[in-house]
Structure formats: C-alpha cells, structure tokens
Amino acid sequence: MSTWERYKEAFQRLSWDDLDHVERMPCFRDGFLYGLTGAFVLGGLRFLQKGRVLSACNWTVGGFVVFSIASRQLCLYQRREQLRRMNITFKDSIERRTPHVPPKGRSEDFVPTSELVAAAEEKLSPVAAPPTEEK
Predict the structure, then answer these.
(1) How do residues 107-126 score in pLDDT, each as one tens digit?
(2) Which helix (H) or strand (E) holds 39?
(3) C-alpha separations of 31 from 71, 94, 102, 106 in Å
(4) For residue range 39-63, what is the model confidence (pLDDT) as tens digits?
(5) Cβ atoms of 79 and 27 closer than 8 Å
(6) What UniProt keywords apply to this chain's record, in alphabetical order (predicted)?
C-alpha cells in the first residue's frame, strides 16, 4: 500500500462526528492554546515589522499551525514519558513487595512476580477515551 493510499484511507475515515469529542483528545487543549498565543504573537510582530495586514495574517495562520502541532507533540511526548516512569515505578514496587520464594506452608497463596507484573501491565495499558453516554 502506497503512502497516498494510506492518506486517502485515513481521510475517508474522518467524519464530522469526530469533532464532537475533540475535548477528549489528549493534549488538545494545550496545543490549541499555545497555537493561538504563538500565532497572535507572530502575526503581531510581523505586522509591526512590515506594516502589511495580509502578510501578518499569513504569518498568523502559519504560526498557529506550527505552534499547535509542536506544542501538542511535546505534550504527548511528556505524557508518554510520565506513563513510562509510572509503569517502571509500579513494576519496581511490585517486585520489592513480592517474595521470590513462597512462605513455608503457604505455597498455594504464592503468585510469581512475572504474573503480577503482567497483571499490572494490563491495568496500566494506555487508556482509551471514556465511553460516551447514550441518551
């Protein structure tokens, strides 16, 4: 499958219903607000520099796109790193608390560390968007 076919398929999957839940997208708010702020600052500086409104508007739109994408990607990166660190901390705490040798007389209660870690990974997998309430 070529790149253009993948893009075509991705755009065909988009619908107007996707915009109804944009507030649930991770880091959307940060990207949008930083994009607006950066766009107005960049457009205002361009207007003060050149004095042409059309040029300033073009720079404002371009600045919004660039700042929005950059700040959202930075936020998503920081979110992934935070989740990764939380997973490592959680796994370490499980391994420290779980005995590697079953206690005497209680071998039926022993759960190997690998099973606990697997169970923890299932619980800490990336969370999907919360289910929508049907009316």
Answers:
(1) 555 555 666 667 766 766 65
(2) helix 28-50
(3) 5, 36, 50, 54
(4) 999 999 999 999 999 999 999 999 9
(5) yes
(6) Membrane, Mitochondrion, Mitochondrion inner membrane, Transmembrane, Transmembrane helix
